[in-house]
Each structure stands twice: as structure tokens, then as C-alpha cells.
Specification:
Elements: H1 22-42, H2 51-62, E1 70-71, H3 72-79, H4 87-96, E2 109-112, E3 132-135, E4 153-155, E5 162-164, H5 173-176, E6 179-182, E7 187-190, H6 195-207, H7 213-216, E8 227-229, H8 232-241, E9 243-249, E10 251-254, E11 261-265, H9 272-284, E12 291-296, E13 305-309, H10 315-325, E14 329-335, E15 337-340, E16 343-346, H11 349-387, H12 392-401, H13 408-416, H14 420-427, H15 436-461, H16 463-480, E17 488-490, E18 508-514, E19 518-522, H17 524-529, E20 541-548, E21 552-557, E22 561-566, E23 580-581, H18 582-585, E24 594-600, E25 606-611, E26 615-620, E27 632-634, E28 643-649, E29 654-659, E30 663-668, E31 683-684, E32 694-699, H19 708-711, E33 721-722
Parallel strand pairs: 8-17
Antiparallel strand pairs: 1-3, 2-3, 4-5, 6-7, 8-9, 9-14, 10-11, 11-13, 12-13, 15-16, 18-19, 18-20, 19-23, 21-22, 21-24, 22-27, 25-26, 25-28, 26-31, 29-30, 29-32, 30-33
Helix pairs in contact: 2-3, 6-16, 11-14, 11-15, 11-16, 12-13, 13-14, 15-16
Length: 738
């Protein structure tokens, strides 16, 4: 029988954790990660590329993709030798650089297949096995003379090969390539400029260091086009500080047959779906009632959003409102944070061009050193060849009479007085080339090489010649890769001066406000069908008058506030409905109740406030007009006395005032002086003695008083008269504020 294994009881010993300062953890764990993100991932360098972009493009260059295309999957696999972050990250990087994605004004990759669209959130790109890619012709300018030691090469992540630390770009790609990156504790957001304008700017700057950049490079240029609203101070801030924002608007046209708005270009910072979603939300909220439908009509011809309008709507005014309420107008926030010499710096445009010129000048000098070394080496060999011209037979004799192979070079050195390099070159000349014609042709190159060396040495010694090379390259690039501006510049300084009013359908309505704060807006047609008003139990009609759907509404509350809104914000209803509860509709404070309402289109008329102590304040409605769209105004009327009633009048009229001692007074509002201050205490109109107070206010023509002359006064203040039973048609209604 097999013996059973004895179970071993394991003992666990609890150890107290070793205390470690948080600063040490940050230094050893967090800081290396942060520096890696900043230095090797998120922030672009002076060649306008992030490491991921550079690794991908260099791999494609090594694969010979300046001519032809390959499957994207093959390119992604080859790039993984330099970029260990995975195939999906590499492919996403490729997508952003393609012509089909349309994120760059000057794409680096020619694409075939579906690569999605930058301006769409839902247009997804196809898998890498279905698409093809190759380098665009402009990429020749990225790799110009890279094989002439123009830039440093560094080992890749596993030391199996090398890659360039930067690309020797012949034009300022840092300004023509849009770049966005979020690092640790910092970010970068670089807008793109027009290639031709950038070339002109650098050329003029080299000729005149005091050149004003806005003259040749007035504003950014985005691949999605649109209209840039020019503001000189904003552009100047971006150019001088490297930070700031530029406003971009969508470009649209109008379908003459249907009157619909057709949007063809949108801001670089948004997408089709974001715009449509916002418009739909506003329509549902009742803030864009003039729009009947919105559709994404984008196809192979490009972006297209169709906004269908209701009959009689002005498309331009509607578009002006859409600019203010949707992403059809947006801002691009600039943050020119760039790695320069391994250090992140926020640079102005002038500093960026200075740094790029220093980098490009160094590339030219290194290329020149390389070419100079090759020319000197070749000249040195040809000078050795020149020495055997006088006696070719002697050279042949030396070679023939030498017994050992390793003695040929030393014997030639001794026989002709040349060094080892020259002797090695002569010894390796083929027998058929030892004719005088071949040697003479080689010697003709000596003078050419001397002239070339002198020219190269002149370039190294003269900065102006280096700048001349840069200028020639930029002129050639501007001519070879023509680029028209895509973003239109709009010089309109008064663009924000006028507040665009909402388009509201105007028609007659009757407004009703109940004592408990329920509001109804009813059309004349509906009232003719049924005029019997319905209210909650214990509620009753408090105020009603005729108005129009386009007028503004002001509600006054028991907390001495005024809430501004529009009649059009309320839906049409029927007399049988309860209506909208105003405190909930306007998001009033808890226990805040509506006392009165006013409707106006031109802020004409007056608000009359009657207080318990017999005072009355007459405030013009224009006092509640505001320049901004404020919805809530505090201190709408005097808070020192208890309010009996607030009444809106369009012109002076008479009111019956009743006191607690059964005295009454009829007063014309023309006697009350107008006070422009909303919180005015007013004047005494009905004298109250002792504990007597004003209890009720009604329109005189609706008060049911037979002998009105007896109670009417021609001057204020007045004491009134006791109500006589014979003058009353019916008992007065109870005051809602008691």
C-alpha cells in the first residue's frame, strides 16, 4: 500500500510594513513614469512628430513605401520592432496620419480603404487587414539626406536595431501638423498653419528679423475648413505667448428650393454627431422651435449636414442662433508646448521658428560635413592615382615582382611615396583599368572635387549660405506642394454686438394666472370652443389679459424677486386643463409663490405695488429690462412693507382701495409719481390711522361700486370714505395675501 503523505501545517508570520516616505515613493515610482510620458509619448518635438509618429514613418520609409502601398497589417507588424505599445495603438497612429482620415492639412500617408473621418464620431475605420497605406510624396521632405548623418540614431527598445531621434525635415512641420497630447502635469495642443504661408513667413523672417508674422501667416488653417473669426488681439496673444484661443465657425449654404440650411464645413474641434445631438436636444427643450428636422447627409463627396426649417423661417437668423447655442461655433485652445533638447517648453511662434531654424541649420551642417568628408576622401584617392600616371609600367612591375600578396601595398607606398589608403586603392584597380584613358578620366574629377570641397567649406563657414539653402528648399516645397487655404478668414469685429433673438411664431393668446400660481396660455380658437376655466380645489382666477406668443413675461413673487421668461416658453393649453405650475417651471425657491405677472414686448407700461400701510409705488416696466439674459432679478420691489397687491398696467387707470376699517378710496394711478428705482417705498395714497391697514385692491370698473364719484379723490394722500351698503352691488372678494 502506498504511504499517505503527511500534511505539513504552514505557519504565516505577520510582518509590520516598513514605513516609507511618500516623497521617496513619488521619486522612485511616479517620476520615471511621468518623465516617460512627457519625453517619449505625449509631447511633440521640433520636427513636429511624436515618437509614435516618427517610428511608424521611419519604418514605412525603410520598407520603400515612398513608392507603392502595402497592407496596413504588414506595416503595423514591422513597426512593432520600434514601437512596443501594441498593434492597435500603432494602427490608430497610422489612421490619424492618413489622407482618408482628413485630420491633417498635409497628410503624410496615402491611404486606400476605409480609414474613417476625423469629423465623425461614428464613422469607424476598417481593420488593418482590409486597408493599404504608403508614404505621401511630401514625406520625401521628412527624410531628406537622412543617410548622410543629418540626425542622431539611437537604439530601439531592445537594442536590436537603431532609429532616428528626429527626422531632418526641410520645412517647419511643427507648425503645419496639428498635434494634441496630454502628458503628466502638462499638455500640448498645436494648431496647424497653411504650408505656403509658413514657408513665406520663414523666408521673410530670414531676410528681415523684425518681420511681423501676421502679415504672411494671418491665422491657423484647419483641415476641416470653416470660418475663422479674426480677432487681432487673440491672434497676437497666440503668436507672442504660445497660448490662447481662436474661434471657428461652420460654413453653410442655403438650398434655394426648400430653404434648408446645408452645413458643409464644421469647426476642427467638434464632430457631426455632437452638432446633431445638441440641435436635437435644443429642439426638444423648445429653444429651437423653427427647426423641423436635422440629418447627416455626408457621403463620398464630403461632409454635409441638412437642417430643415419651418415655413417662414429666416435661415441666416437661425444659423446665427445655432452659432451661439451649438458647436457649430467653437474655440480651438492653443498650447504650444514642445520638447526642445529634451525639455518641454511653451514657445511663441517666433521662438518655434528660431528653434526649427537652429535644428535645420544643424542638419545642413551635418550633411555638409558628411559630404565634405566623402569628397576629401575621394580626392585623396585620386591624388594617389595621379602619382602613377607618370609611370604606369613601374606600378605594374612592382606588383608583378612582389613575391607575397601582403607586400604589394607596402611596395607601392615605397615606390611612389603614397600612403596606405592610396596604395590600397591603386592595388585594387582592375587590370583592364590600367590604361591611360581611364586614369585621365579619373583625374579630371580632381578639379571638380576641389571646387566642391571649397563650396562645402564655404557653406560651413558662412551662416548666410546655410540660410540661403533653407530659403531655396522652402521655395521649392511651396512650389512642389501647392496648398490653398482651407479655413476662410472673417474680419467682423461687430459679430458679437447684436444679441440674436429667438425666432418665435407670433399669434394672439390670452394669459391666465391662478391664485395658487398655475399659468395657462390659450388661443382664441380654443377659448371659443370652451371658455369655462378649471382650477384645483380652493384655487381661483387671479389675473388674466390678452397678449401675444412673442411677448416677454415677468412674474413677481413673495420673496421680492422677478422671474423673466417668454410666453412662447409655455405650451398652448385648454381652459379645462390646470396649466403649468409657475414655481416649478421657473425653478423658484422653496415656499416662493407667484403674486403677479406682466407681459410686454417693448417694456412699456408700469407696475403698481400697493402696501398695507397705504403706500403705493409706481415703477416703469423698463426698469426690469436687462442687457444680459438674466432670468431672476432680486429686489424687484420694496421689501420694507407688506404687499397687498401688484398690478401691471399699460396706461393709467382707476383702482378701488379698501381698508380694514371698511373705508374705501378710488384713485387714478396718474396721481402716483413714477419712481425709476425698483425698490422704491413709493408715496402714501390712502392714509391709515392706528391699526388700520389696506386690505384689498381692485380695478374700479370691476369693483361693483355704484356711486364712484363719492369715493374718488383728486389728490393724495386721502383718507377715503366709509363704504355704504347702498353703494355695494355685491360683497368684495377676500384678499389672497391675507
Amino acid at each position: 500500500m502506498a504511504k499517505k503523505k503527511k500534511s505539513v501545517q504552514k505557519e504565516y508570520v505577520y510582518c509590520e510594513p516598513i514605513p516609507r516616505p511618500i516623497t521617496q515613493t513619488l521619486e522612485t515610482n511616479y517620476m520615471p513614469y511621468a518623465m516617460s510620458v512627457i519625453m517619449s509619448r505625449a509631447i511633440p518635438e521640433i520636427d513636429g512628430l511624436k515618437p509614435a509618429h516618427r517610428k511608424l514613418l521611419y519604418t514605412m520609409y525603410g520598407m520603400g513605401l515612398l513608392r507603392g502601398r502595402q497592407k496596413s497589417a504588414n506595416i503595423v507588424g514591422a513597426t512593432m520592432k520600434l514601437n512596443p505599445h501594441g498593434d492597435s495603438a500603432i494602427y490608430e497612429t497610422m489612421v490619424r496620419l492618413t489622407r482618408g482620415y482628413e485630420a491633417m492639412p498635409h497628410p503624410f500617408i496615402n491611404s486606400k480603404g476605409n480609414f474613417g473621418k476625423y469629423y465623425s464620431r461614428d464613422m469607424a475605420y476598417a481593420a488593418s487587414r482590409y486597408t493599404e497605406a504608403g508614404l505621401a510624396p511630401i514625406c520625401r521632405e521628412l527624410f531628406d539626406d537622412i543617410d548622410k548623418q543629418t540626425v542622431d540614431f539611437v537604439p530601439n527598445y531592445d537594442n536590436s536595431t537603431t532609429e532616428p531621434s528626429l527626422l531632418p525635415v526641410t520645412f517647419p512641420t511643427i507648425l503645419t501638423t496639428p498635434n494634441q497630447g496630454i502628458a503628466v502635469g502638462m499638455a500640448s495642443n498645436i494648431c496647424s498653419f497653411n504650408l505656403a504661408e509658413v514657408c513665406d513667413t520663414v523666408i521673410e523672417y530670414l531676410k528681415n528679423p523684425e518681420h511681423h508674422f501676421a502679415l504672411t501667416m494671418p491665422a491657423p488653417d484647419f483641415s476641416t475648413g470653416g470660418r475663422i473669426l479674426m480677432n487681432k488681439s487673440d491672434i497676437e496673444q497666440i503668436y507672442t505667448t504660445g497660448r490662447g484661443s481662436v474661434r471657428i465657425r461652420a460654413k453653410y449654404g442655403i438650398d434655394e428650393k426648400s430653404g434648408s440650411i446645408i452645413v458643409t464645413e464644421i469647426p476642427y474641434t467638434t464632430t457631426i454627431e455632437a452638432i446633431i445631438d445638441k440641435i436635437v436636444d435644443l429642439v426638444k427643450a423648445g429653444k429651437l422651435r423653427e427647426i423641423s428636422d436635422v440629418k447627416d447627409m455626408s457621403d463620398l463627396s464630403g461632409l454635409k449636414i441638412r437642417i430643415e426649417l419651418k415655413r417662414g423661417t429666416d435661415p441666416d437668423k437661425t444659423m446665427a442662433r445655432l452659432y451661439k447655442m451649438t458647436p457649430l461655433e467653437d474655440s480651438f485652445g492653443c498650447n504650444f508646448n514642445i520638447l526642445v533638447g529634451g525639455v518641454p517648453r511653451v514657445l511663441s511662434v517666433r521662438e518655434i521658428i528660431d528653434e526649427w531654424l537652429a535644428f535645420r541649420t544643424e542638419c545642413i551642417k551635418r550633411r555638409t560635413y558628411f559630404s565634405l568628408g566623402k569628397a576629401r576622401e575621394k580626392l585623396h584617392l585620386l591624388q594617389g592615382l595621379q602619382t602613377i600616371l607618370l609611370d604606369i609600367d613601374k606600378a605594374v612591375k612592382i606588383v608583378r615582382e612582389t613575391e607575397h600578396d601582403d607586400e604589394v601595398v607596402p611596395n607601392l607606398m615605397i615606390g611612389f611615396g603614397i600612403d596606405e589608403v592610396q596604395a590600397e586603392y591603386i592595388a585594387n584597380i582592375r587590370l583592364r583599368h590600367l590604361n591611360r584613358e581611364y586614369i585621365l578620366k579619373r583625374l579630371e574629377e580632381v578639379e571638380q572635387l576641389k571646387a566642391e570641397i571649397a563650396q562645402l567649406e564655404g557653406v560651413l563657414a558662412d551662416r548666410k549660405k546655410q540660410h540661403k539653402i533653407i530659403i531655396e528648399d522652402l521655395k521649392r516645397i511651396k512650389k512642389q506642394y501647392p496648398s490653398e487655404r482651407k479655413s476662410e478668414l472673417v474680419y467682423d469685429e461687430q459679430d458679437d454686438a447684436a444679441d440674436i433673438e429667438e425666432h418665435v411664431e407670433d399669434y394672439g393668446v390670452t394669459l391666465f394666472l391662478s391664485e395658487q400660481g398655475y399659468f395657462k396660455k390659450i388661443t382664441p380658437q380654443s377659448l371659443r370652443m370652451n371658455s369655462a376655466q378649471s382650477f384645483k380645489d380652493g384655487d381661483r382666477l387671479w389675473q388674466s389679459f390678452e397678449s401675444s406668443n412673442a411677448q416677454e413675461l415677468i412674474f413677481f413673487t413673495n420673496m421680492h424677486c422677478a422671474y423673466k421668461t417668454r410666453v412662447s416658453e409655455f405650451d398652448d393649453t385648454k381652459a379645462s386643463a390646470l396649466g403649468d405650475y409657475v414655481p416649478a417651471k421657473l425653478s423658484m425657491e422653496q415656499d416662493e409663490a407667484v403674486l403677479a405677472m406682466a407681459a410686454t414686448s417693448d417694456y412699456s407700461g408700469y407696475m403698481i405695488f400697493f402696501f398695507e400701510n397705504g403706500r403705493a409705488a409706481k415703477v416703469p416696466v423698463s426698469a426690469y429690462r436687462t442687457q444680459t439674459n438674466r432670468k431672476r432679478l432680486v429686489g424687484a420691489f420694496c421689501d420694507k412693507f407688506a404687499l397687498v397687491r401688484a398690478v401691471f398696467i399699460r396706461e393709467d387707470c382707476e383702482f378701488l382701495l379698501t381698508a380694514s376699517n371698511n373705508k374705501a378710496l378710488i384713485i387714478n394711478t396718474a396721481l402716483i409719481p413714477v419712481k425709476a428705482t425698483k425698490s422704491t417705498q413709493g408715496v402714501i395714497v390712502f392714509t391709515q390711522k392706528g391699526k388700520n391697514t389696506l386690505t384689498e385692491v381692485k380695478a374700479a370698473k370691476e369693483a361693483g361700486i355704484k356711486n364712484t364719484d363719492y369715493y374718488r379723490t383728486k389728490a393724495i394722500p386721502a383718507v377715503g370714505h366709509f363704504l355704504r351698503d347702498s353703494d355695494l352691488e355685491q360683497p368684495l372678494q377676500q384678499n389672497m395675501f391675507e
